[in-house]
C-alpha cells in the first residue's frame, strides 16, 4: 500500500481557508482532516476530537517536549497553544490516507522542515 499524501493548506486569518476546506472535504472522498490539539476552552458548538482535541497546558507541553517532538508544528497564539500531532498524522499516512492540515503560515513552515507536504497558500489579494 502506498503512503498517503500530506496536504498543508495555509492562509492569513480571515481568508476563508476553513470554508474552502469544508467544501473540498465534502466533495473529495478519501481525505482525512487532521484535528489539532489546543489548550484553549471549547467554544459553543465545538466538539472534542472533532473540532479540536482540547487538552490542558501541561499535557500539551509534555507532548511538545517529546523527542522527537510530539507535534509536526505548534504555536502559542493569544496565550493558548495549538499543534498538529505527529503520531496521528504519521499513522494516517502509513495506511495510505491523504491528510489535510488547516494551519497558519508559520505552522506550514514548521511542517515543511519536519515532513514532505504538498503545500497550498490561499491569498485574499485579488488585485
Automatic annotation (TrEMBL):
Family: Belongs to the guanylate kinase family.
EC assignment: 2.7.4.8
The Guanylate kinase-like domain, residue ranges: 4-127
Broad EC category: transferase
Residue intervals passing through the bilayer: none
GO molecular function, one term: GMP kinase activity
Keyword DNA repair: no
Protein name: Guanylate kinase
Claim: Kinase is one of the keywords in the record: yes
Highest taxon of source: Bacteria
Amino acid at each position: 500500500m502506498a503512503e498517503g499524501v500530506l496536504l498543508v493548506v495555509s492562509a492569513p486569518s480571515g481568508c476563508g481557508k476553513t470554508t474552502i476546506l469544508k467544501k473540498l472535504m465534502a466533495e473529495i472522498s478519501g481525505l482525512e482532516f487532521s484535528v489539532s490539539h489546543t489548550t484553549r476552552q471549547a467554544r459553543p458548538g465545538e466538539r472534542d476530537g472533532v473540532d479540536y482535541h482540547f487538552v490542558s497546558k501541561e499535557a500539551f507541553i509534555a507532548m511538545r517536549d517529546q523527542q522527537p517532538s510530539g507535534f509536526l508544528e505548534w504555536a502559542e497564539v493569544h496565550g493558548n497553544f495549538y499543534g498538529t500531532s505527529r503520531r496521528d498524522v504519521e499513522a494516517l499516512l502509513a495506511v495510505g490516507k491523504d491528510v489535510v492540515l488547516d494551519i497558519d503560515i508559520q505552522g506550514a513552515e514548521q511542517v515543511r522542515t519536519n515532513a514532505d507536504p504538498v503545500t497550498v497558500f490561499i491569498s485574499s489579494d485579488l488585485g
